[in-house]
Amino acid sequence: MDHENPSGCCGGPSAPPQAGLSRRTLLRGAALTTGALTVGGVVGLPGMAHAAPAIYNPFAGYPITGTWEEHIRSGSLGGIDFGMGVGTNLPACGAGTIQNIPNNGTGGHTVTIHHADGYRSQYMHLSQFLLSDGTAVAAGTVVGRSGGAVGAPGSGSSTGPHLHWHMINPSGVRIDPLVYVGQNPGGGGLPKTTTEQDGIPGPICYKRMQNWLRITSGYTGPIDGVPGVNTYAALQRAMRGYGYTGPIDGVPGVNTWKAVQRLASGWGYTGPVDGVMGPNSWRGFARFLNQDQWD
Predict the structure, then answer these.
(1) How buried is 231 (Cβ within 10 angstroms: 0-12 exposed, 13-18 middle, 19+ buried)?
(2) SS3 state of residue 68
């Protein structure tokens, strides 16, 4: 569990609350006095239409170590903590532009993704920023690396390695990103693969792999979830960037799968690079495949 500095969550200090009233109470009061409507923690103002940005949960494969309610009870304005090792790649949960906030109070290094029409997402306790302020990103673009080790640069008040994620709506109120995703599901495209959770590849996993290879590596066959020589030849081409130096013959062997494990190591896989794809290798690979950009 972490305790973020409320005044730092939006990149700058706010006016001090009135005596005896918390900032959260004041925000709720302001919403009521302006006639705001609150649904599931998301505040909207009458007469103001805000286009909901397409947001997904890029951290579904990681355990939740701090819930929204636990943050509220601890005095935070809210957030979700996901347990993950230091240095894990952090994909953007939606398209937007980047703002980096070094040493953002108790939140430590914070990256803000400014989405369409005023929504923002914030990732806290980063160990590394990867992009410059103002960089435009698509959903799934890696925007930084996780941190949170006690006392490490950028960790803020974190008590252990993890990522903290919350959203801020156009009214400036922090909202639960998992509630938001549940209320604004993305439409169309391929479904996400459950391989990210169970480590067992199946047709959806392979369909997503084929679509990724279609977009990036010259695969021209059907998106049917039945990989064959053409699928695996495209996979071998894609793995050139991950140390594969063998033939492009569409017959994957140990060296092909070693390269896949190297890719998966950027998405939570921490096992050996031995070319033997087990459940943990597949989970990491599936986290990569579950990016919105491969839908």
Answers:
(1) buried
(2) helix
Beta strand extents in 92-182 (DSSP E only): 96-101, 110-114, 120-124, 126-129, 136-137, 142-146, 163-168, 174-175
Secondary element (H or E) of residue 190? none
User: Are 176 and 68 within 8 A, CB to CB?
Assistant: yes
**Cα dihedral sign, 134-183-179-182:** negative
- pLDDT given at position 41: 32
What pLDDT shows up at residue 91? 87
Catalogue the long-range contacts made by 157-160 (C-beta closer than 8 Å, 24 or more residues apart).
157/2, 157/3, 157/4, 157/106, 157/107, 157/108, 158/2, 158/108, 158/125, 159/1, 159/2, 160/65, 160/83
Contacts of 144 (CB under 8 A, 6+ apart): 90, 100, 109, 111, 123, 126, 128, 129, 130, 131
Handedness of CA 108, 168, 136, 268 (dihedral sign): positive
159: CB partners within 8 A, 6+ apart: 1, 2, 150
What is residue 114's three-state secondary structure? strand
Residues found in the chain: 295
Burial 39-53 (b: 16+ CB within 10 A, else e): eebbbbeeeeeeebb
Mean pLDDT by 10 residues, the chain (295 residues): 38 34 37 31 36 78 89 94 92 93 96 94 97 90 93 94 96 93 67 92 93 85 89 96 96 98 96 97 96 83
* Cα 245 to Cα 262: distance, rounded to the nearest angstrom: 13
Residue with tokens 């960089």: 135
* Paired sense of beta strands 163-168 and 174-175, if any: antiparallel
Question: Which pLDDT score is estimated for 189?
Answer: 58
Q: Are 259 and 239 in contact (CB under 8 A)?
A: yes
